[in-house]
């Protein structure tokens, strides 16, 4: 199906998802992309790359299946959670049906939908950033794919389990419910991956980019029932995962790698608690929203000027827009980095 001139124009008008350029500022403190600030060294054993990789690497799938408590048949590995989102939309949506999500949330749901030509429906979150279940289920009657992000980006909070269950039980069997759990390791919530048998139309997005600290390799997973995984295999590229990515991902999911992740998560959560305590005493801070992720959403007295001030001091955070235009999303870095943020904000006039 060819793209119409109107569709081409709509893509040209899209605003790209942006982050601060990496490695161009030697003094930079990057707190804009929710990365794990504690690197771990990896070594590659494979020296030859003249052959294509496995389409879905067996050892990697087995390792992640064991970690997530599912079977390999319930997994698809892709280039980050971002590609997983795109694949689900490509597999199930076209210009005759719609996706649904609840803003404020991750911007790529909408961007990927516009690229495919799918309609975009919204059912805004409640005042405390929870799913408005009646409004969501009403809108879902006209949607093929619905997205729930928990913990939610950029607000940081988990969605109520009962509300997620209400959506899963309330939508049509033909509607795919996508639960984006990119930040689940930072919370005390068990993944919905253990409940696949209850919900045939559930797809869960996970990633190694956040808690596991390998954002640079771009490796994510879709967890779903086998029929849904087979549908995604129809649209994914033939050899999607580069060999070096697979080798590093396998090391990441070793017992040592999982222990590293859990230690890093504990340290990041401790840094977050200390940062929130220090931040709450500053007069320029109006509100700090509760967070179950490795970032916090902060309402400021003048978010735009504070954003620019932080940037002038080589500190990069994520500026928000729309209903959150007076807020900044700040990733949690090392203890030293967070102390530097407090120092800079304390000196702000």
TrEMBL record:
<comment type="pathway">
    <text>Amino-acid biosynthesis; L-histidine biosynthesis; L-histidine from 5-phospho-alpha-D-ribose 1-diphosphate: step 7/9.</text>
</comment>
<dbReference type="InterPro" id="IPR005861">
    <property type="entry name" value="HisP_aminotrans"/>
</dbReference>
<comment type="similarity">
    <text>Belongs to the class-II pyridoxal-phosphate-dependent aminotransferase family. Histidinol-phosphate aminotransferase subfamily.</text>
</comment>
<feature type="modified residue" description="N6-(pyridoxal phosphate)lysine">
    <location>
        <position position="210"/>
    </location>
</feature>
<keyword id="KW-0368">Histidine biosynthesis</keyword>
<dbReference type="InterPro" id="IPR004839">
    <property type="entry name" value="Aminotransferase_I/II_large"/>
</dbReference>
<dbReference type="InterPro" id="IPR015421">
    <property type="entry name" value="PyrdxlP-dep_Trfase_major"/>
</dbReference>
<comment type="subunit">
    <text>Homodimer.</text>
</comment>
<feature type="domain" description="Aminotransferase class I/classII large">
    <location>
        <begin position="43"/>
        <end position="345"/>
    </location>
</feature>
<dbReference type="InterPro" id="IPR015424">
    <property type="entry name" value="PyrdxlP-dep_Trfase"/>
</dbReference>
<dbReference type="InterPro" id="IPR015422">
    <property type="entry name" value="PyrdxlP-dep_Trfase_small"/>
</dbReference>
<protein>
    <recommendedName>
        <fullName>Histidinol-phosphate aminotransferase</fullName>
        <ecNumber>2.6.1.9</ecNumber>
    </recommendedName>
</protein>
<dbReference type="Pfam" id="PF00155">
    <property type="entry name" value="Aminotran_1_2"/>
</dbReference>
<dbReference type="InterPro" id="IPR001917">
    <property type="entry name" value="Aminotrans_II_pyridoxalP_BS"/>
</dbReference>
<keyword id="KW-0808">Transferase</keyword>
<keyword id="KW-0663">Pyridoxal phosphate</keyword>
<keyword id="KW-0028">Amino-acid biosynthesis</keyword>
<keyword id="KW-0032">Aminotransferase</keyword>
């Amino acid at each position: 199906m060819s793209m119409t001139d109107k569709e081409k124009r709509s893509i040209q008008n899209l605003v790209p998802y942006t982050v601060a350029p990496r490695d161009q500022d030697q003094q930079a403190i990057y707190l804009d992309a929710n990365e794990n600030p504690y690197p771990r060294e990896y070594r590659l054993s494979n020296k030859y790359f003249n052959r294509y990789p496995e389409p879905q690497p067996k050892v990697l799938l087995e390792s992640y299946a064991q970690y997530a408590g599912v079977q390999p048949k319930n997994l698809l590995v892709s280039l980050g959670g971002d590609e997983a989102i795109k694949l689900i939309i490509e597999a199930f949506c076209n210009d005759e049906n719609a996706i649904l999500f609840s803003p404020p949330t991750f911007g790529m749901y909408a961007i990927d939908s516009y690229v495919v030509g799918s309609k975009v429906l919204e059912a805004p979150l409640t005042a405390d950033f929870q799913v408005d279940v009646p409004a969501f289920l009403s809108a879902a009657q006209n949607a093929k794919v619905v997205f729930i992000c928990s913990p939610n980006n950029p607000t940081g909070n988990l969605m109520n389990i009962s509300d997620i269950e209400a959506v899963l039980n309330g939508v049509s069997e033909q509607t795919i419910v996508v639960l984006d759990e990119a930040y689940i390791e930072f919370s005390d919530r068990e993944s919905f991956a253990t409940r696949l048998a209850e919900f045939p139309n559930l797809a869960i997005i996970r990633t190694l980019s956040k808690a596991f600290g390998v954002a640079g390799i771009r490796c994510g997973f879709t967890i779903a029932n086998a029929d849904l995984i087979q549908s995604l295999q129809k649209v994914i590229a033939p050899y999607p995962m580069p060999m070096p990515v697979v080798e590093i991902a396998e090391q990441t999911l070793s017992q040592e790698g999982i222990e590293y992740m859990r230690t890093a998560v504990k340290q990041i959560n401790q840094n977050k608690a200390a940062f929130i305590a220090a931040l709450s005493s500053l007069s320029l801070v109006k509100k700090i929203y509760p967070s179950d992720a490795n970032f916090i959403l902060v309402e400021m007295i003048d978010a735009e000027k504070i954003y620019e001030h932080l940037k002038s001091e080589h500190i990069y955070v994520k500026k928000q827009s729309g209903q959150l235009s007076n807020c900044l999303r700040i990733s949690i870095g090392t203890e030293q980095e967070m102390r530097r943020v407090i120092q800079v904000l304390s000196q702000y006039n």
